[in-house]
């Protein structure tokens, strides 16, 4: 607010000076009197928005949270109810009869503990191998110049875009007759069909993992490597002693990605495995396993609605280890995503 002094010059007073000795309500009233009609309309709209926006924000977040959590809530509800509750129209969320029977039967049908052990051997082993191979490949693309670099990186991008189904038949043929000339062996239904691609940075979603490492290593200062070279380190020791410690968050992010994708994989496992069972394969064949292990007959008829309780229980125990893993490591996972540059 401006006032005219005794010498004829305009003096601008601050809000504090204007309101000195007045209540906030009186000071606000004075300010409103000196505003134009458009300024008053703007303040009314802003005040209305400040009052309404928290309500809409709550509705949006609550709706999104419900949509995301609905499947999990439904899984828990179905897992701990009797199958007869599925035919009761009055039972929606809270079971009428609580029981652990369905959960125990599902664990037996899936042979859960043996299946879990097999899955972990494949999952953790392939994930660790793939993290190392993808890190070395990503570092090469980020820091070294060589002929054909652009073409090879284009192939990496194609690995992200091209679905696994396109190359599944050539891969099956390669592993079925693995070797050179007449010196071949059959690797189908062995863990080598999963470990060999991971070892050569060609495992499940490896293209994206190479991209994550490349983006992260490109963001590190070049001076780190220069200092290591001056101290006598070669390229490999520079990578091991300097780059790897600085990329811990990215290693964890890629490892979590790899664990989740290997854990959820059904297509690749079903292509190469016939007798080896993983969590995803057992969940896919849960209907047949239930009939054989619980009812001793593959032809027994079970109501499709009653089957839901076993299927939901199978889904719940299948995702439980991943939920626990992510809950414990979500802070580092988010940090790795941010530092890799993928959020840009």
Explain what you see:
It is a single chain. Among the domains are: 2-33, no CATH class; 110-284, MetI-like (MetI-like fold, Orthogonal Bundle), CATH 1.10.3720.10. Helix content is 70%, strand content 3%. The chain contains 16 helices and four strands. A hairpin with a 2-residue loop joins strand 3 (178-180) and strand 4. Helix 12 (248-264) packs antiparallel against helix 16 (304-340). The longest helix has 43 residues, at 37-79.
Tell me which CATH architecture of the domain at 110-284 applies here: Orthogonal Bundle
Count of runs of 4 or more consecutive helical residues: 16
CATH structural class of the domain at 110-284: Mainly Alpha
| Alpha-beta classification | mainly alpha
Q: For the largest beta sheet, what order do the strands appear in spatially?
A: 1-2
Average pLDDT confidence is 82
List the helices and strands in order: EEHHHHHHHEEHHHHHHHHH
Q: Rg from C-alpha positions?
A: 31 Å
Q: What is the secondary structure topology, with strand pairs?
A:
Layout: E1 2-4, E2 10-12, H1 15-18, H2 24-33, H3 37-79, H4 101-109, H5 112-143, H6 149-161, H7 164-176, E3 178-180, E4 183-185, H8 192-199, H9 206-218, H10 222-230, H11 235-246, H12 248-264, H13 267-272, H14 279-284, H15 286-294, H16 304-340
Antiparallel strand pairs: 1-2, 3-4
Helix pairs in contact: 3-16, 4-15, 4-16, 5-8, 5-9, 5-12, 6-9, 9-12, 10-11, 12-16
């Amino acid at each position: 607010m401006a006032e005219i002094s005794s010498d004829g010059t305009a003096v601008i007073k601050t809000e504090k000076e204007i309101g000195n000795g007045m209540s906030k309500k009186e000071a606000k009233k004075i300010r409103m009197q000196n505003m134009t009609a458009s300024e008053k309309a703007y303040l009314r709209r802003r005040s209305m928005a400040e009052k309404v926006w928290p309500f809409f924000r709550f509705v949006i977040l609550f709706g999104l949270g419900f949509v995301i959590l609905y499947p999990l809530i439904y899984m828990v509800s179905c897992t701990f109810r009797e199958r007869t509750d599925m035919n009761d129209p009055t039972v929606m969320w809270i079971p009428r009869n609580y029981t652990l029977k369905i959960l125990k039967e599902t664990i037996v049908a899936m042979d859960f503990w043996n299946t879990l052990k097999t899955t972990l051997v494949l999952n953790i082993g392939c994930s660790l191998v793939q993290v190392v191979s993808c890190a070395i490949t990503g570092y090469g693309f980020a820091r070294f110049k060589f002929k054909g670099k652009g073409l090879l990186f284009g192939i990496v991008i194609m690995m992200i875009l091209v679905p696994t189904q396109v190359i599944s038949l050539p891969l099956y043929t390669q592993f079925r007759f693995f070797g050179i000339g007449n010196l071949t062996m059959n690797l189908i239904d062995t863990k080598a069909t999963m470990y060999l691609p991971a070892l050569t940075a060609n495992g499940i979603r490896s293209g994206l993992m190479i991209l994550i490492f490349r983006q992260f290593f490109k963001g590190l200062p070049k001076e780190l490597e220069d200092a290591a070279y001056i101290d006598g380190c070669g390229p490999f020791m520079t990578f091991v002693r300097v780059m790897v410690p600085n990329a811990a968050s990215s290693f964890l992010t890629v490892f979590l990605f790899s664990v989740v994708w290997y854990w959820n994989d059904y297509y690749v496992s079903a292509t190469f495995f016939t007798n080896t069972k993983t969590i995803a394969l057992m969940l896919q064949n849960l209907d047949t396993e239930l009939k054989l292990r619980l009812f001793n007959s593959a032809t027994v008829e079970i109501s499709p609605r009653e089957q839901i309780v076993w299927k939901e229980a199978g889904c719940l125990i299948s995702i439980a280890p991943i939920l626990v893993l992510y809950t414990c490591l979500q802070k580092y996972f988010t940090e790795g995503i941010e530092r890799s540059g993928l959020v840009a």
